[in-house]
Amino acid sequence: MARTNRKVVPQATAALDRMKFEVASEMGVNLKEGYNGDISSRDAGRVGGNMVKKMIEQAERTMSGR
């Protein structure tokens, strides 16, 4: 099966990683560079969900001109 989770804008990789660590830190989830298979699926999902929420908020601000 082919992987479909390629980034549309590869140059955004560093910014997404910074956001991931920022969100995890705000939530008290201890991420480290590299493999994080020791965190729970629940925590990983919360981090990802909050990243999406922040990206939507940023897009809405951009669209509204704020």
Could you explain the architecture of this structure?
With 66 residues, the protein is mainly alpha-helical. It has a domain at 12-25 and 40-66. It contains 2 helices and no strands. Helix 1 (13-27) crosses helix 2 (41-64). It starts with 12 loop residues before the first helix and ends with a helix. The model has no long low-confidence stretch (mean pLDDT 91).
Topology at a glance:
Blueprint: H1 13-27, H2 41-64
Summarize this structure briefly.
The chain is mostly helical and 66 residues long.
Which short descriptors sum up this protein?
66 residues, mainly alpha, 59% helix, globular
Number of helical elements: 2
What does the largest sheet look like? none
Shape: globular
How far apart, in Å, are the first and last alpha carbons? 42 Å
Q: Unreliable stretches, pLDDT < 50, 5 or more residues? A: none
Give the H and E element order: HH
Helix percent band = 55-70%
User: What is the residue-mean pLDDT, rounded to a whole number?
Assistant: 91
Kindly estimate the percentage of residues that lie in beta strands according to DSSP.
under 5%
**Gyration radius, rounded:** 14 Å
**Counted beta strands:** 0
Content-based structural category: mainly alpha
